[in-house]
Write a structure and sequence with these properties.
It is a single chain. The protein is α/β, with parallel strands linked by helices and 473 residues long. The protein folds into two domains: 198 residues, Aspartate Aminotransferase, domain 1 (Alpha-Beta Complex), CATH 3.90.1150.10; 252 residues, 3-Layer(aba) Sandwich (Aspartate Aminotransferase, domain 2), CATH 3.40.640. The chain is 40% helix and 11% strand. The longest helix is centred in the last third of the chain and has 20 residues. It binds ligand F0G. The site of ligand F0G has 15 residues, from helix 5 and helix 6.
């Protein structure tokens, strides 16, 4: 099942029976990039408190901060924007989106939200009571925060390999069933409102979870009557990995794999800003009429009416079209092929990063870059700053800053993974951009020994990585 480890670009080419892959689209509109000098970047980094989230985008050359909402839409999606039915209630585009989600993901009921965290807030409030426990295959920042604010304690039940940057396991996103069983035994099934299963797992480096694993989680939780809610944000990318790596799925289209995958869950929270190829939007879906009823009541408090949930009609139309486009196998191969192309360049120079390459980016191993730094000197934050200073490329910290503090003790979480993420927006950059990125990472790798770390001088209360400020040590 996990015999498939790091697949090179060549292997992908062979699977397609051609020498190289190329994007299955061409460019119709272009947007100029901003070039800066080293002196300008030095000043911009100080002004931004060494936090790439605080840089104005006008000071950024290649923006790999995130794959969230940074996608390029197709001509069909832009045409769809003109079909926006901006009625307050009962927009035509809502029904189109509702039907698309039902057909592509298989969920009966849909509650639109402005983006993923809007859905996480509603699901958490609808299902969690004070003192509950929510297991998940690694935390995600906003997801865990909403679970905690609703009164739950989050428990990481991902396989150990997920925390090991050198493990070549093909399904490092899997749930460790023994850990899940141990939690059920310890706190009791009635204290677990749902299991939160993410596909792919962002904080582990975009690592997939196998069909066999989600099925096994379903079998285990069904005996206790515990529902499963999927974080389906990058579930289509996950489906591609299943097709490539799991016995019995090689000949199935990712559309079919996605439907089967979702069938082992009771519903999903969704950030539409990733897989669905749009710039804004999200939803909560469920097969449970009671959860639907509760969510529909709540959406009008936090998001908007239950037929728009914070999205304009045109945004819902673009998402409905984008979902279908993203379910094309050719598109998805080029998407993941581009990420792997960057990985293959870095690999040949010995740059340390999370392997196998995941779905949405390359996650540089900042501990391996800077063994001279302690985790409290913020190696991943430092590497993101160094990369920007070198070339104007913007990356993001995914380490101790993102992990935040324990909700009960106030102590820093100390994640084993201390990563700097080069996140690839969908359909936005070319192979030449990937070359430039790889060369800048190489330059940072070559000067790694002289680098000193950072200290945090301002820490916000929630999701500190977004707005924290640092100074050089
Ligand atoms: N779940 C996952 C797995 C995510 O990656 C994100 C967002 C969310 C939920 C929240 O969705 O942003 O629409 O509210 N991830 C972005 C990122 C921010 O850069 O990884 P949202």
């Amino acid at each position: 099942m996990t015999d498939h480890t790091y697949t090179s670009l060549h292997t992908m080419g062979q699977q397609l029976d051609r020498r190289s892959w190329a994007e299955p689209y061409k460019i119709k509109a272009v947007e100029p990039l901003h070039m800066t000098t080293r002196a300008q970047r030095d000043a911009a980094m100080v002004a931004a408190g060494y936090n790439t989230f605080l840089l104005p985008s006008r000071d950024v050359y290649i923006d790999l901060l995130t794959d969230s909402g940074t996608n390029a839409m197709s001509d069909r999606q832009w045409a769809g924007m003109m079909l926006g039915d901006e009625a307050y209630a009962g927009s035509e585009n809502f029904y189109h989106l509702e039907q698309t989600v039902a057909e592509c993901y298989g969920y009966k009921h849909l509650v639109p939200t402005h983006q993923g965290r809007g859905a996480e807030n509603i699901l958490s409030q609808a299902l969690i009571s004070e003192g509950d426990h929510v297991p998940g295959n690694m935390y995600f920042t906003t997801t865990r925060l909403h679970q905690e604010r609703a009164g739950a304690t989050f428990h990481d039940v991902i396989v150990d390999a997920a925390h090991d940057t050198s493990s070549l396991d093909g399904f490092k996103g899997n749930v460790d069933l023994a850990k899940l069983q141990a939690l059920i035994d310890e706190v009791g099934a009635d204290k677990i409102p749902y299991v939160c299963v993410a596909a792919t797992v962002n904080m582990a480096g975009g690592q997939p979870i196998s069909m066999a694993n989600v099925k096994a989680v379903r079998e285990l939780t069904a005996t206790y009557g515990i529902p499963i809610y999927l974080d389906a944000t990058r579930a289509m990318e996950n489906a591609m990995f299943i097709q490539e790596r799991e016995e019995g799925y090689r000949d199935k289209p990712i559309a079919e794999i996605l439907l089967e995958f979702c069938s082992y869950s009771d519903g999903a929270t969704m950030s539409g800003k990733k897989d669905p190829l749009v710039n804004i939007g999200g939803w909560l879906s469920t097969n449970d009429p009671e959860v639907f009823e509760a969510a529909r009541n709540m959406v009008v408090v936090y998001e908007g009416l239950h037929t728009y949930g914070g999205m304009a009609g045109r945004d819902m139309e673009a998402m409905a079209i984008g979902i279908r486009e993203a379910l094309s196998d050719d598109y998805m191969r080029s998407r993941i092929g581009q990420v792997r192309y960057l990985g293959s360049l870095l690999d040949q120079w010995g740059v340390p990063f999370v392997k196998p390459v995941g779905g949405h980016g390359i996650f540089l191993d900042a501990r391996a870059f800077y063994p001279q730094l302690t985790q409290e000197q913020f190696p991943a934050q430092t590497l993101a700053a160094e990369l920007y200073l070198d070339s104007g490329i913007r990356a993001m910290e995914r380490g101790i800053v993102s992990a935040g503090r324990d909700a009960l003790t106030g102590e820093n979480h100390h994640p084993r993974l201390e990563l700097t993420r080069l996140t690839i927006p969908r359909r936005v950059y070319t192979q030449a951009h990937m070359d430039v990125v790889a060369e800048s990472v190489k330059a940072c790798f070559e000067t790694r020994e002289s680098v000193r770390g950072l200290r945090m001088v301002y820490e916000p209360q929630y999701l500190r990585f977004f707005q924290a400020r640092f100074e050089r040590l």
